[in-house]
Specification:
By secondary structure, the protein is an all-beta fold. It has strands at residues 3-6, 12-16, 21-26, 32-37, 43-48, 54-59, 63-68, 74-79, 85-90, 95-100, 104-109, 114-120, 126-131, 137-142, 147-151, 157-161, 168-173, 179-184, 188-193, 199-204, 210-215, 221-226, 231-235, 241-245, 252-257, 264-268, 273-276. The protein has no helices and 27 strands.
Length: 277
């Protein structure tokens, strides 16, 4: 398992894997609902459309594909990146943003299958992208150890956040848009002020590289996962560690919060997905 995402209403999850497929699951029963096939290389990630009627996947075959949930059929194919795609996010029902090993961020019009904007500035692989809650900014992180904030309208870079000493694995924007969190191979989580770009807090506690970190919907806590096989909770104001979840037998690759923050899905190199209440 490489990636897992909740549907907007929390009733389904989509997963993708090394077997080149995307699978749709019912959360309550755990039953597989649908299988989407078509990628020519392993599928690196998946995301639901804002209305939950479609799934979009991205792959090392350098393509982005959109699928209809009910029929299981591919309804769109986007090409343009020259290397593997690491992440995508919806900007709106008609637009999405992607990032790649080719060092670029691209904005696409889905209906026309056309690339409408190209953002360049990172000096190495762009690994993750996130959209600010008001839809005006893109936040990206890279193998070049930086986080960058971009204005969507102009495509210009607004700020450059520096401090990590190794590859930045993940970035997330707080629900109120005022803070950014990043996590890194340097075993730290950093909290930044979105407006000024200043580092607010430095969180330490994991004993290996940190692979993902996300804000809770209530904006009071952060959850992180690591190659040390643990999931940890942190207080957003003090930076103190609140809780440790243990159970995975190998590194925890990623985490997903349910829309209301009541459940956490974690997926690991131990080949399991775990649900935490």
């Amino acid at each position: 398992m490489i990636d897992v995402k909740f549907s907007p209403d929390g009733s389904k999850i989509a997963s993708c894997s090394w077997d080149k497929t995307i699978r749709l699951w019912d959360v309550q029963s755990g039953r597989q609902i649908q299988v989407f096939e078509g990628h020519l290389s392993f599928v690196r990630g998946v995301v639901f459309s804002l209305d939950g009627s479609k799934v979009v996947s991205y792959s090392d075959d350098t393509t982005i594909r959109m699928w209809d949930i009910l029929s299981g059929k591919q309804i769109q194919l986007l090409k343009g990146h020259s290397d593997m795609i690491y992440d995508i996010q919806f900007l709106s029902d008609s637009k999405l943003v992607s990032c790649s090993r080719d060092k670029t961020i691209r904005i696409w019009d889905i209906s026309s299958k056309r690339q409408i904007q190209l953002l360049e500035g990172h000096s190495s692989d762009v690994y993750r992208v996130k959209i600010s809650p008001d839809g005006s900014k893109i936040v990206s992180c890279s193998f070049d150890k930086t986080i960058r904030v971009w204005d969507i309208s102009s495509g210009g870079q607004i700020s450059l956040l520096q401090g990590h000493t190794k590859i930045v694995n993940s970035v997330s924007v707080s629900p109120d848009g005022t803070k950014i969190i990043s996590c890194s191979v340097d075993e730290t989580i950093r909290i930044w002020n979105t407006s000024s770009g200043d580092q607010i807090l430095l969180l330490k506690g994991h004993h290996n590289l940190i692979l993902d970190a996300q804000f809770f919907p209530d904006n009071t806590k952060i959850v992180s996962c690591s190659a040390d096989s643990t999931i940890r909770f942190w207080d957003i104001l003090t930076g103190k560690q609140i809780q440790i979840l243990e159970g995975h037998l190998d590194r925890v690759i990623g985490i997903q919060l349910s829309p209301d923050g009541s459940k956490i899905f974690s997926y690991s190199d131990d080949k399991t997905i775990r649900i935490w209440d």
